[in-house]
Amino acid sequence: MSFTYPWFLVGLLAISIPIAIHLFELRRPQRILFTNVEFIREVKLVTARQRKLKHLLVLLARISFISFLVFLFAQPFIPAPEQRSQQGAVNVLVDNSASMQQVGISDHLLVEDAIQEASELPLAFSSGARFALVGNNQGVGSGEAYRAAVQAIQITGQNLSMNAQLSQGLDQAARTNGPLFLFSDFQKNSFSQQQLTSLDSSQQVFLVPLAGKATANVFVDSVWLDDAFVRANTDITLRVRLRNGGAQTSTDCPVKVFVGKQQAAVFRVPVPAHQTTTSMVKVRLTDKWLQECRVEVEDSPVDFDNTYYFTLQPAAQIRVVEVANEGLMAQLYNNEPLFTYQHLAPRTGDYRGLERANLILLREATEVSAGLREKIQEAVQRGATIVIVPAATASHDSYTALFRTIGVGAVQWEPTKGGVPPLRDVAAPNRQNPFFQDVFAGQNRPAVMPKAAPVLSWSRSGTEILRLRDGDDFLAGFSSGKGVVYLFASPFSNGYSDFTRHALFVPVMYRLAMQSYQQEQQPAYRLNQRTLSVRLPDAISTGEESIFKLTSDSAEYIPSQRVQGARVVLDIPPGMRTPGFYTLTRAGQPVLKMAFNFDKHESDLTSYSAAELKQLIGSNRPNIRVYETGGGQSVAAQYKATRVGVPLWRYCLLGALLCLLAEGILLRVRGRQKVAPVAQAA
How far apart are CA 93 and CA 195, in angstroms? Predict the structure, then answer.
């Protein structure tokens, strides 16, 4: 046994006080008269023995009371087998990710159990111990301040991964020279023991896994459309992929799909444990405006991920700009309301029409000026698609400079020895190529393919779209900046190609334009995305200096932001924790409606148990310990028993009180047993 304050043991000298009182107590003899003197000897003998025994018991009670009182102030304790001196602050990391909303063995949410266990930690340390909550900007504080910070913890969808949080906690523990307590469900998709294996042996880490009840957890993994171009008043095929992140099978899960405020579809589907299933529903947009959509899954008891939010809006028109001497493509693109067409002459000098073009078709220009080359470079850098059709008689140097500027290298001009080079057959398209997806719609391949006389050739560094039968490329794509450059090997003019008169011409040119389409925003985002980029509508001027804000109901957030051309890059604010719909505003005016959801990895409830964690860590790392919960003993009690010791001051207090009670009982009994005085005989 050891003492926290051993100098209080000097108080044991006070034991001499009741001993001295007992030895030197002077009592006035009491005269008792008896009518029969034969009993005097017997009465004197009995009362003397009883009085001596009672005096000794009272003395023992008083000595014991003083001893227990001194021990109470000295605070004795039984040393723990793994006791260490606590010097630095106690660091605590409480996982407040969305997965902590599952129900635990205690029938409470895991985050509630974690908060309860973490709040009791100060009981395992001395009153002067300092605590630091990882992720809390308040730094090191007292036990009371730490408890208040723990009680204020809320679930958030913006957590770092568990590995990132662990790294942050270990860094803080190293700075404060103290142990780290980690309360989490330890999901297998986010926790790795690699960081723990490289720890210094002096760094103490205590893992507290919180286990949830085995259950099914069906959630929406993703939604997508078969057609990237959403048209109003047309049936749209929406595919919904459901995943079961729980340990049990959901045999009949109800699912509802809402478009705006109307229910668009309802169905039931079984989802096996740890498996996915994809369902197809038909939805329709009745106007051109963006619609707030959601998929609701009726799944309990884990319900934090039962709603998936997304947006749908009819596609905007694709802006096609043809740079050529004459507008050959006008009729082609004007026939389809999906496109807007504009023609520019190569030598116009005014290329402002290229600034917001989705597709720039540079067709058979004899020379590419420096101004046109600069505008094409700017367009491809912001994500536009460039289609280049070479001219039969072109300035090789200007084209070579263009290829170099936009990053299309190794392009060579075919030598011509007078006249038109021989025509070569174009090979049939490969239907497995994603470029031709849904182009043929079950039709047979064209029996007769077009012919072409290439004037350009290049290495196989691009993505092949169409090739000649002899193996050379006829049409290929090259990534450049944020956009794509498509290059034809031959001109479209008569004598060099009959491609414009072939059945492939229209679908290929439409497909090139469709490939250039970029949505202004994604249907849905995740709250854990650190950064996102959205394309601003044409009506929004990028020159204004007003601040973009994200609003939802009465909540308003100002994200870090930077405008890059026609796009704005936003950093999701740390305080934005709740999934749902948010409006991007500027100067009080709505710009975009955006949907945010929890990270889908949080819905996978597969976690490490305490036994699995111990197996992962191994027995050769005594500085890492795993505490189990749910056994009737708190983490604080377990830590105190193994690291701090068993305090005995409570027993000393109880002993002192019992001694006082015993003394009172002895004195009361002694008073009752006094012999009553007898009157003197005459």
Answer: 15
